[in-house]
Every structure is written in C-alpha cells, then in structure tokens.
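Form 12-C: Joint structure prediction
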Amino acid sequence: MIVSAGYYMALAAALFVIGALGMLLRRNVLVMFMCIELMLNAVNLTLISAGRALNDLNGQVAVFFILVVAAAEVVVGLAIIVAIFRRRSTASIDELSELRG
Amino acid sequence: MITPPEVSWIAIAPDLILALGAAVVLLVEVQWKPAARVLGLVTAFSLVLAVGATLLQKLAVEDAMLAADPERLVAFSGMILMDGFAVFSRFALLGATVLGVLTGWRYIEGLGRRGAEALALIMLATVGFSIMVASNNLVMMFLGLEVGSIALYVLAGMSRERPESDEAAIKYFLLGSFASAFFVYGVALIYAGTGKLAILDIRAFFDQFIVTSPTVIYIGIGLVIAGLGFKVSAAPFHSWAPDVYQGAPAGVVGYMAAVAKIAGFAAMARILLTALGDLDSIWLPIVAALAALSMFVGSTLALVQGDVRRMLAYSGVAHAGFIMTGVVGGETQGILFYLAVYAVQLLGAFAVVVAVSGASGARSSIDDYRGLARRSPGLAGSFTVLLLGMAGLPLTSGFIAKFGVFTDAWNSGYEWLVVVAVLASVIAFAFYLRIIVAMYMDEAEEEAPALVPTVRWVVGLAVVATIAWGIFPGSLLDLAANALAL
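Section 2 - Result
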C-alpha cells in the first residue's frame, strides 16, 4: 500500500498542533522545551514529504539546516534552564514571575 | 564536469568581516586576556570595516542599476540578494550595533572576562540579522533569524548577578523559539503549496499560475506573519517584550530591540511585498488587523506602566503597529525610513535609561526620573526630545516617519487604519508626556547621575538625528526611496 504525501503532512500538522498546545498548557520548562522540538520536527516531516511529493530536493536539504538550528537551540536553552535551576531549584514557569506589570 | 559555484564575496562581505571579528575577539581573549579596551578596539575596527564593505555594496548596486543588469545582484545561486533594500537595512543594523556597543560599553567592561563573549555575541547577532535582511531564500532567512535570535537569548541572560536576567532569558528563549517554529512551519507550508523556497521564484510562481486549492498556502502565510509578529513584538504576540525589556541588562536592551525590529520588519516586507505581492487580498486584512491591535494595545497599556523600560516596551508594541501600517501601505520607503528613525530614537532612549538607572540594574521606575530636569538638565532635555520624537511631534523625525506610513496606508485604501493610527498616536502622547512631566514638574530627590562619555555620545547623536531628520529629512528619504527590493 502506498501512503500519499498528504497523510504525512496531516500527521505533521497534528504533531505541530500537539507541540503548540503543549507549549501553551504545560508548566514545566523542560516539557515546554520538548514541545518546541516536536514542532520543529513536524516542520521537518512537512518539508520531507512535500519535497518527496514535488520531486524536489530543496525541501529535503532544508531539513538538515533546521536540525542544526534545533541542536543549537537545545544547547542555549538547556544552559539557560540549568542557570535558573541552580539559582532557584525549580523548573516551573509559574514560579518565574518577578517581572510583572 | 562539475562547474564551481559562482561566489560573489562582496554580497556577504560585511557578515564575513563581523563573524571574523567575533572570532578574533574570542581568541584574543583566550590567548592574551587583554584589557576590555583592546577588545573594544577590535570590535570597533570590525564594525568600521563592515560599514566600509556595505558602502562598497552600495556602489555595486548603483553600478548594476545604471547598467540595467539586476541579475548581477543575485549571489550564491539565488540565496543572497545584494539589492538596495538589503544594503539600507544593513546600514541600519550596523548603525544600531555601533550605538548599542557604545551604550552598553560600561556594562560590557563590568562583565570582566565575559565581556569578550558579550561583544562576540553582539557581532554575531548582527551577522545573523544582516543575513536575514539580505536573503532570497526562506530557509536562509530562517537561518539568519535563528543566528541572530539565539545570540540575543544569551545576551538577555548574561548578567548572572541578577535573577531577573535569567527570567528574561528563559521567557525570551521559550517564546522566541515558539515563534521561530511558527515561522518555519509557515515556510514549509508555502513550500508545500508552491514548490519554491526562493522569494523571487515564489513571486514568479504567483505571476504565472493561479493556485486552485490555496488553503495550505494561506495557512502558511498566516503562520509566517505570526512568527515574524512575535519577533517584532506586535500585539497579540507581544507578551514577552515588557519582561525582556525590563529583565535583560539595560546596556544591551536597546540594541536587542532595535536590531530585532529592523530585521523582522525587513523580512516581513520582503516576504509579503515581494514574494506574496500578488496575494495581497489575503494578507492585507491580517496585517491591518494586527497593526490596529498593536497600536491600540501598546498605547493603552503603556499608559499604566510604572517602569520606564516596560513603558518603552509597550511603546515598541505601538511602534510595531505603526510600521505594520507602512507594510499595509506597501511602500518600502516608508517602512525603511520609519525603521531607521525609530531605531535611533530607541537606542537614544535606552542610553538615557542606562544613564539614569545604571547599565545592569533592573529597576527603572518612573520615580527615578522625578526632577531629573533639576539634577541634569541636559539629560532631561535630550530625553524630552527623544520622547517627543517617538510621539511624532512635528519638527522631529518621528513626525515625518509617521506621516509617510499613514499616507501610504491611506493611498492603498485603508482609511480606517489611518484613523486608528492617529487616535493611537494621541493616546501615545499621554504616556510620553507623563515622563516629561515627572522630569520637569517634580522636585529632585537624588543626586545627578554620573554620565559615562560613550553614553553621552549616543544620547547626543540620537537627539541630533531626531531633530535633523525632522527638519531636513530629504537625504534619508532619498536613500530610503532608492533602497528598492529586487
């Protein structure tokens, strides 16, 4: 059975929405961070299936760049989270509320 | 046979120079641990060279335009454009970087051994954003956006002594990455719908074909606008801005805000006006609605802020709305002029904040400004000029900028948006006046703040530019008018 690109793109859209909802609903910084990774991977799946369906390499090559960007984001994001955790021993976004107004 | 790719070094020369400068700063720091002044000189040297390279680019653009050979301006197999639009935006970015480093110099020195990292990050952020404004490929644009944004996330969290800085960094990081994911998903959907990633190819595609089932492309456009809206802090995506402006070290906030706005709007103009110009019936209502909301939300929320940096953040939201009014107007001249003028005013205003509240402190309550006119009349006078410029009083550059974008929007048939914009400007006057009244009407309590020379230069320059471009805007307007996108 051949699964058409449309199904992959629908799956990617579902993953993206799950990631976005998780980002908005979850309160743990690490989980929010994972949701962003999920969203980026949904983008990758979209690009790959679109590139495959269009018979065009550009979309598939773009995925490499997005993977690298995601890795760079992980490095910086985890460093910031570790810095916060050292100071406050919490990873909940609700307790980071000194800036208000 | 393999043909080597055509490399046009001049198209990325400013970026190469700055990236090299950042590497040199880091290596020199590791090897010799010199005084901060030496690193500052290396940075200044790289910035001067980068400005020189951008001047060469400008000459090359003029040559190509005279020869009626725009193909020459497409570099790296259509990845990078060296058009007037990119060159003008690069000048604006480099100018903001120079002013930003000068404003934050005391703070960077105070970081000690980590000062080199701050300088390198500032240069790398400029590299990223300058690639972003010059890219012709949506993935390239995303890479530039991320190089710039990731450097800014680190800059926001650099002062380890203060908990607010961490908090600002994590908020900026989470919401910024969230926005980047939206942007790149939009890019992926536009690619899925058109099969193109290059901006000029997308324009050619829409010139040639009528898309029969455009839903995917429409969703993609919406996501791209939302992603860039986050970056330029347009309402309703502005929630991070006040916290970051307040929590990040004051010395670099002005720089962060200015370059993110310049690059975000340049990218938005390039994508919407150039690539998707034929689909304007789709995106014009979205952008107009966001513009109206930003102006309204920014102006009204700024009224109730008790902290000058939060107030400047909400005023930034309102300004994002005004610049989006220019995007609705569809003329790059108005957008670029507004960006240049606003970036200078913003950097000047934050230089005043640095002078009054210190370069690393988080509190910049409006109480600190009470009676400033008695303590240091020069500083108070300068801040007044800058605030009036932001408000758009006639005889300041802000007025010309606002007038330009309002006229463009009116001519493109969005009269209601101009009415909203004028009302929002009136509300905005109120909160700028609130600070001015506090500075002039109230009694002084503290002593005059000690002015760092570099900060004084930035404030002076911003004031001179605000008045000069308000009375003689011709030269900058001409530059912006000639800065056409391919």
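Section 3 - Comments
The beta strands of chain B are 74-75, 80-81. The longest strand of chain B covers residues 74-75.
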